[in-house]
Amino acid sequence: MPSPLFDSLRSRILTLVLGLVTLVLAATIAAVVIKARVDVERQVSLQLRSADEIARESLKFRGAQLSNAVEVLTSDFGFKEAIASADSPTLLSALENQRARIGADLVIVLNSGGTLLASTQDVLSPKTSEDLRQLVLGDPDGMTLRLYRLLDGRPYQLVLAPVHAPNLIGWAAMGFALDDRIAADMSRLLGVQVSFLAVDLGTAPYVASSLDAAARPDPLAEMARAGTEPFVIEAHNDRLFTLKVPIRTQTGELALL
Q1: Which one, 55, 68, 126, 135, has least CB within 10 Å?
Q2: The pTM of the whole model exceeds 0.85
């Protein structure tokens, strides 16, 4: 019959063996989980960078659409006559027709000095009007400008071209708003969630996104992030692996997430 000392020793050995097995299993599971997470993050990072490249090409294509539409508008003889005579009703009719043709969100006409003649936007603030005036005055060579601009705190992809007859008589600007609709379209194309963040001095921060309102990123917090590596956003009980792509603009800050 085994002695109590033997039973105690056997129990200790069994406990030690079970503890070692448990420790090895836990370490193995932890290693597998960590490796799986690293692999997933690597794959997601590659997907985000691929989406970034496709997003840039998509925006370039939209910019080309704007350039072609503005070229058609500024080559139209009737449009030139309307600018020369400052005929606002005719200008507005031409702007609305061209805007509807390509689905642009904004068309603006300025005279040669940069003063607003007509716009499809009901109201442009004095700040935005002056910004556009300074933009064309800063282009003495009369070159077509392709740029991103915050107009009254809202981001636009904008093309601004001179109108000659044959001398410079004005400028025509046409733009796509970087809004929820564009974010949703790009999200379907890229296979990832898409947000545009804009922060302009004196206006409320702006977010356009394919995400639900509760899950949208905080523009001030995300604009403060530096670096080009993916990071995690905690939003509405979700962890969103995210890549921030700054978009160059001379008015405020603009980024694609």
Answers
A1: 126
A2: no
Neighbours of 52 (CB within 10 A): 17
- C-alpha closest to that of 229 among 82, 8, 21, 45: 45
pLDDT at 255 over 80: yes
Within 10 A of 102 (CB to CB), how many other CB atoms are there? 16
Asked if pLDDT for residue 33 goes beyond 70, the answer is no
Q: What confidence tens digit (pLDDT) does each residue in 131-167 have? A: 899 988 888 777 888 899 999 889 999 999 999 888 8
Whole-angstrom CA distances from 8 to 1, 5, 12, 15, 18 are 14, 5, 6, 10, 15
3-state secondary structure of 30: helix
Q: Write the DSSP string, 132-169.
A: HHHHHHT-TT---EEEEEEETTEEEEEEEEEEESSSEE
